[in-house]
UniProtKB/TrEMBL annotation:
It holds the Pfam family ThiF. PROSITE patterns: RHODANESE_3. GO terms for molecular function: ubiquitin-like modifier activating enzyme activity. Residues 165-187 are annotated as: Disordered. InterPro entries: Rhodanese-like_dom, Rhodanese-like_dom_sf, ThiF_NAD_FAD-bd, Ubiquitin-activating_enz. This is Rhodanese domain-containing protein. Residues 193-279 form the Rhodanese domain. It comes from the Bacteria.
Amino acid sequence: EAKTASAARRLREVAPDVRVMEIAERLTDANAHDLLAGWDAVVDGTDTFETRYLVADTCAALGTPLVWGSVLRFDAQVSVFWSRPPDGVAPVTLRDLFPAAPPPGSVPSCADAGVLGALCGIAGSMMAVETVKLIAGFGDVLLGRVAVVDALTMRVHDVAFAGTSAAPGTPSTASRPAEPAANPPATDLLGRTLLDVREPAEFAVDALSGAVNVPVSALEQAARTGPGAAAALLLEAGVPDGVPLATYCAAGVRAVRAARALAELDHDVAALTPDDVARMRART
């Protein structure tokens, strides 16, 4: 049974008064605009980077709000993107959060890494809530914020990020607020070990000089095990215990996640913004 037919059948079972339109057609560059135009909101339930960015860029061009979610292993993320929100609200798109899709093969697939099935239900319910809020016009939607769910500890926190005035589909260089501490200027980073928390394939392309690579997924997994496991992971990467750290990534979100995990283990750590990273690149 096709996914569209399965989803439509289930929707009709639980909400028989809802009008469901099935479109059993593969989304492509050629038809995306026509298929996604005219809707009040789009909810992205796709599972490939190519389709996710196609949906996001098309919604950005149309000015249609997009409710987005992602699940891998024991972690989920949910956010809302809207390139033409009401007056007084800053526009944000997927590319403000993740400027470009990761290189092929750099991120494990759900089939390889696994997904906690119940977590899909949690993320899906959160996306449904955001959709209802958008359509009904109440509450504070996750616009300019990404909710991060850690199923192993059942903690939910959100990370703020900023949009850009660039045209839809253009990678963003906007500065994003970072946690857990105020970000020091790049000139104050002497003595901090640079920790690139991207995937190894991304690190190989454009790592900062002197940085070491520990992916945030591995770091969070180790942190959940305990301080000893995290310290061992860092030591294996060439980071001695107790040295001050500065985390960075492409868009700032993974840097914040890594800094939060390390800060909870009492590490002296700061998360760099994309602007911090750009300044450091300009000096090398």
